Task: structure prediction
Amino acid sequence: MTEPGIVNSTEVTNVRTGLLIDWGGVLTSNLFASFHAYCLRAEIDPRALSGRFKADPRFRELLIALEKGELEEPAFETRFAALLEVEPDGLIDGLFAGVGPDTAMVEAVRRAHEAGIRTALVSNSWGVHRYPHEQFDELFDGVVISGHEGMRKPSRRMYELGAERAGVEASACVYVDDLPFNLKPAEELGMATVHHTSAETTIPELEGLLGVALREPTPDGVV
Result:
């Protein structure tokens, strides 16, 4: 039997003391599902849009500028809407209309923070105003948002800042992201990494890496 808040030591593979984590698609529902739903509402073929993203550098250049805070939201919406051939007003909100919190993942971060794990948000932003800033103090010791920093993942410095603001060495951290290419810089800094696909798989993996229980224990005290 395991006491609440403690993971059985036989399950701990490499205990870390810091948790750096992405926001969209990790602490929220799937972003791409929301984007897909927007395309259907706007009568855009999602497959054709994906192909245009890969073939037309203007799409990527606009997104990078937005994420780095070099382009204000209204300017992004105007220029991005022209490429999509849709109305610009409310474009970003429309793309994110289907995004909501992943309550299990948010609670896992809260439990880690309360257990003494140093935590930091490391996120590429589509504007900086849609985050629930009122929750940050109870979830994170540090925050790194691309639009405030003038750089974006996978810049190595984003991960270094995350560790610094969490107050731990990079090699003591776990980094979680839903995009595999964002994991490589963290690995190069000595972080353990978790490719997030669902709370059901990510949370048990984090429990093993951090050595703390991140789920509500069952009546017999086992998570």
Observations:
- Confidence is low (pLDDT under 50) at residues 1-13.
- Residues 9-29+101-210 form a domain with the Rossmann fold fold (CATH 3.40.50.1000).
- DSSP finds eleven helices and five strands in the chain.
